[in-house]
Specification:
2 domains; 14 strands; Dihydrodipicolinate Reductase, domain 2; globular; 9 helices
Length: about 280
């Protein structure tokens, strides 16, 4: 079996989860980690030292460092997985896109919910339903470093906005009805006959839920007691569970081995940042 040499940049709480997941993927060989806050046998002394050892780089660093690390990796001709939000703003994201245009490397953004089997099943259900719908999305949690650097829109709402775009295509309109960069946001999005409200906040506790109302169908999915559940018309839908992060990382490896394009790409990451930053604001 061909193995891809992976270099992990960042060993915070989420970086540790990436580390544990990489160890369970047979086609991946984690050759090193770079994080200046950590030392040890697997840790390199510099980013360049790690890049020299790896075929691909997995970037799990604070949001304001994502682009600089990504550009260094791309300019060293390494395939790239970069955590969301990819950049703290469009200007930074555009820098990354401009470098990627002149490289032949594979690039991917870590929108993990696309690899959640619940949202994968929801994607297939939606394709079969009437195009008239009202959707409510809520994503709440405790403040994180990413939230402090980017606000709840680019830390939390970005997941739901990416899923909506994945399901329905480009939005016709995006309006921010209430906005506090750190604590709370409410976004209204329209896709033809589909209207969605996306609520995100860092007021805690952790809440994840979607409610979809169609003329003849109702769908409800939520996260509780460390598991997701999905209901359609009051009947629970059976889902074969797998860990989204492990599936995401495996998919990244498969794309490298098979030389196929990734989805979500950094262009998808740029588009969501563009949607957020260009939204009409009504306080």
């Amino acid at each position: 079996m061909k193995k891809i040499k992976i270099g992990l940049v960042g060993f915070g709480s989420w970086g540790k989860r990436h580390y544990e997941s990489w160890k369970r993927i047979p086609s991946a060989d984690l050759v090193g980690i770079y994080d200046p806050a950590h030392k040890g046998q697997l840790f390199t002394n510099s980013l360049n030292q790690l890049i020299d050892k790896a075929d691909a780089i997995d970037i799990v660093v604070p949001a304001n460092n994502l682009v600089s690390v990504a550009i260094t990796a791309l300019e060293s001709s390494k395939d790239l997985l970069i955590e969301k939000p990819m950049a703290i703003n469009l200007q930074e994201a555009n820098k990354l896109l401009n470098v990627a245009k002149h490289q032949n490397q594979l690039t991917m953004v870590g929108f993990i919910e696309r690899f959640n089997p619940i949202f994968g099943k929801l994607h297939s259900i939606i394709q079969k339903l009437d195009d008239h719908a009202k959707i409510f999305c809520q994503r709440s949690g405790s403040p994180t470093l990413v939230t402090k650097q980017t606000g709840v829109l680019k830390d939390l709402a970005i997941h739901d906005l990416d899923l909506l775009r994945w399901y329905f295509g480009e939005p016709d309109s995006v309006t921010i009805r209430s906005k506090d960069d750190f604590f709370l946001s409410q976004v209204e999005v329209k896709f033809g006959n589909v209207e969605a409200i996306v609520i995100s906040d860092c007021l805690g506790p952790k809440i994840r839920r979607w409610v979809l109302t169609y003329p003849h169908d109702n769908i409800f999915t939520y996260f509780e007691n460390n598991r997701w559940r999905l209901y359609m018309n009051d009947q629970e839908v059976s889902i074969k569970w797998h860990m989204p992060l492990e599936r995401e990382l495996t998919y990244f490896i498969e794309c490298i081995i098979n030389e196929t394009k990734t989805s979500p790409s950094i262009q998808d990451g740029f588009k969501i940042l563009e949607i957020i930053e260009n939204a009409e604001i009504h306080q």
